[in-house]
Amino acid sequence: MNPRWLLRMSQWARNPPSMGRVILGAIVIGLCLLIAGIEWLGLWPDWLTLPARGKRGF
Description:
This protein is mainly α and 58 residues long. Helix content is 60%, strand content 0%.
């Protein structure tokens, strides 16, 4: 593990994020999982899907 990550974890242990930030992060993760689940089930509407842009993707 990179020593920079160990320093970051120690800072988080000393100064944990506020409850509002934790709730915000949980909401964002929940929305991402909801969108991924809708797409996985095949319920994502076609008008929200971008058309393919060619072989290279540019």
